[in-house]
Amino acid sequence: MAKSNGSKVVVRQKKNKLKYGKWGLIFILPFFIAYFIFQLYPLIMTFYKSFFREYKDPMTYKLIQEFIQFDNYKDLFKADGTFLKYLGNTFSLWLLGFIPQILVSLLFASWFTDLRLKLRGTGAMKVILYLPNMLMASSIAVLFAKLFATSGPINMIMHSNIDFLSSEWGLRGVIALVNFIMWTGNTTILLMAGIMGIDPALYEASSIDGASANQQFTKITLPMLKPIMLYVLVTSMIGGLQMFDIPNLIVRDGGTNQAAYTVVMDISKGISGSGDIGKAGAESVVLFLIAGLIGLVLFKSMESDEAKEKRANKKRLKAAAKKAKGVS
After folding, report:
1. CA distance 148 to 174
2. CATH number corresponding to 82-307
């Protein structure tokens, strides 16, 4: 706003009363409050509790906390301990479901996005594949427990009397089948999104050069899918390590020789009061560290060629700079 005062012209600027920075902080504040209360604080308390042993005094029935340093962690890795067995069960159940899931998802994703095949009914097929993911895991677990029971429909169709849920690998196979059916559709949709994001000009140029469909898939599709594959691997790994509801509902005690008893099932036993909370905390911390370590390995192994080249160039520049300093 300009105002003339004789020969002088005074310019007054209207102050902007709206402070965007302040309102931005206000809008994101609920997320941080929820994060600190429901995620960060429980995580810190889990680390804290893992250094204690909690038990009830048989005389007074009072809860006693005893600081035992790293004894909970030492007990987990004893030769006669059960934690390593439960950890092996967790990984085997995850891999049995994930390996066929990623292979079938890659196959479906490449088929559905290939315009040369001219497939019909792909929309209906996508809906059918994704539909199990919209159902609750508990309902599917109960359904498959009934299907594969000794007197269930599967045995009736096969005219057999196989007790799938009493066999170690039979039980693991049923749980892996549930995970496969539930998550194949979701993985297929994610991989389809990654394939559709690849520049079609790459496929056109390679076909002009005489590349076959298999060569295009291995030399173009798979390398360009590294980011979305990394996301699928990490999220699947985290979900696999946290596996609880499906094996717990199919066989609550882990089945024969506890073949389907996972780490999270043992953690929930400790939290529910029938076990040691300190041991459950130590198991949670170890599981957290394993997930973080595997995640780092996957990030390194799935790193793009451009990122690897940039890191190599940085190392060369640093080496050259050190050599120049030494010469001077």
Report:
1. 8
2. 1.10.3720.10
Predicted confidence (pLDDT) per residue in 85-123, tens digit? 999 999 999 999 999 999 999 999 988 888 777 788 888
Q: Check residue 66 and report its DSSP letter.
A: E
Find out whether 269 and 254 touch, Cβ atoms under 8 Å: no
User: How many other β-carbons are positioned within 10 Å of the β-carbon of residue 326?
Assistant: 7
Query: pTM for this structure?
Result: 0.81
Integer Cα distance of 42 and 47 in angstroms = 9
Residue 308 near residue 69, CB atoms below 8 Å: no
Q: Domain locations in the chain?
A: 17-72, 82-307
CA separation for the pair 23, 16 (Å, rounded)? 14
Pairing of strands 52-56, 8-11: unpaired
Q: How far apart are CA 178 and CA 172, in angstroms?
A: 10
Backbone angles phi, psi at 308, to 5 degrees: -65, -40
**Residue 56 and residue 191: Cα distance in Å, rounded?**
52
DSSP for 170-182? HHHHHHHHHHHHH
pLDDT of res. 268 = 87
Number of H helices, E strands in the chain: 16, 4
Written as one string, the DSSP assignment of 130-161 is HGGGGS-HHHHHHHHHHHTSTTSHHHHHHT--
* Residue pLDDT, tens place only, 265-298: 988 887 776 567 888 899 999 999 999 999 999 8
